[in-house]
Amino acid sequence: MAELTTIARPYAKAAFMFAKEQNALAEWEQMLGLAAAVAQEATMRAYLDQPELDSETQAKAIGDVCGDELNESARNFIAQLADNKRLALLPTIAMLFHELAAEDQRTIDVELIAPFELEDAETDKLVTALKTRLGRNVQVSTSVDESLIGGVLVRAGDTVIDGSVRGRLNRLAEQLNS
Questions:
Q1: What is the C-alpha to C-alpha distance for residues 64 and 76, in angstroms, rounded to an integer?
Q2: Measured distance CA(83)–CA(25) in Å, rounded
Q3: Helix count and strand count (H, E) for the chain
Q4: pTM, full prediction
Q5: First CA to last CA across the chain, in angstroms?
Q6: What pLDDT digit, counting tens, does each position of 21-63 carry?
Q7: Burial 7-18, CB ≥16 within 10 A → b, else e
Q8: Residue 90 burial class via C-beta count within 10 angstroms: exposed 0-12, middle 13-18, buried 19 and up
Q9: Nearest alpha carbon to residue 169 among 149, 146, 141, 145
Q10: Which of 76, 78, 85, 152 shows the smallest number of beta carbons within 10 Å?
């Protein structure tokens, strides 16, 4: 995984810089996400892996499936990836592009995991607290994990805040066992 990220990073940075110059970060993020989803799909992956296909045919296949959702610049980017035999990196490039765009816009994706569905007021209160603590705009998604018993587990990038009852019980057990 680290090797793929290392190889994909220059492509993601190049796409990011171009998109930023064109003031089209959201459009490029959407196009890269679509192209990555198409390239990752099992049938397309099997088609692209055929050794007799040249890079032009591979790039055209992705462009045809994506249709009008890709502009000419994105099609040229995908052609470059195909020429360099890097189409398999599209999902990683899309992920890195998203991270670069989020960093540029000072936003962070946060996942709130609770043992039950959170009410809007509770979510808003957590988002406000996280904005203050993280110093960024927060884009939140929520999920339910009934095994947490109570409280909330927060995942924001590499940061994990475990405010769940299960987490507290585990920490208490560790303290009692040490």
A1: 13
A2: 24
A3: 8, 4
A4: 0.72
A5: 36
A6: 999 999 999 999 999 999 999 999 999 989 899 999 999 999 9
A7: ebeebbeebbee
A8: buried
A9: 149
A10: 85
